[in-house]
Design a protein that fits this description.
Elements (H helix, E strand, L loop, with lengths): L1 H6 L14 H7 L5 H7 L4 E12 L2 H4 L9 E11 L2 E11 L19 H4 L5 E3 L3 E6 L3 H9 L8 E11 L2 E9 L14
Antiparallel strand pairs: 1-2, 2-3, 3-7, 4-6, 5-6, 6-7
Length: about 190
């Protein structure tokens, strides 16, 4: 159990607690749709779906999505690519108890961004953002490394997560920011 706890992140409600550089802090605290900001900041934007299937929920995800213990959830992982470079790794979990009326478009997203549905549905309520620095041994960083074929520079990555509610259904999105996000041009505040 001790090894498991060392791989868990410490999530904070204030971005200052993760000591991100100013440019990364700006990305972490994007209040509107991250997808819209990535689109506005690049010439080309694409969602690369890695998988979407049932999986065992990580221990650090159980509390935020209302599970009493580790259980199977619906899991979706994507790379958000800007100008052909991965900029953000997205990890979404939805409890199995959620119904199709809670999240009607989740199963049919394919290569579309989840943000395109979350931010334009008035029934979706966004929770509080939480922030963390993930070490190279964290399971999400290991998954990211695998998705990139082992080519991942750096040993710490900044991440944020947020729980969304629609009807009675909860959904949690975790976004891990890659260094390439700092190379993107526009920092427009219109997102």
């Amino acid at each position: 159990m001790r090894g498991q706890s060392l791989r868990q992140a410490k999530w904070h409600r204030h971005v200052g607690a993760v000591h991100a550089p100013p440019a990364m802090r700006d990305w972490l605290t994007t209040q509107g749709s991250l997808t819209a900001r990535l689109v506005a900041s690049s010439e080309t934007f694409r969602v690369k779906r890695l998988h979407q299937h049932a999986a065992l929920c990580a221990l650090e995800e159980t509390g935020p999505i209302g599970l009493p213990r580790r259980e199977r959830v619906w899991e979706r992982e994507v790379l958000l690519c800007c100008d052909d470079a991965p900029a953000v790794f997205g990890h979404t979990v939805v409890p199995m108890s959620a119904t199709a009326s809670d999240w009607p478009l989740f199963s049919a997203l394919g290569e579309r961004s989840l943000g395109t549905t979350l931010f334009y549905d008035p029934r979706v309520q966004r929770g509080t953002l939480e922030f963390a620095r993930l070490r190279g041994s964290h399971s999400l960083v290991e998954r990211l490394r695998s998705a990139l074929g082992g080519e991942l520079q750096g040993n710490e990555f900044y991440a944020r997560r947020c729980v969304y509610r629609r009807h009675q259904g909860l959904l949690m999105v975790t976004e891990v920011f890659l260094p390439a996000v700092l190379d993107l041009g526009a920092t427009l505040r219109t997102y």
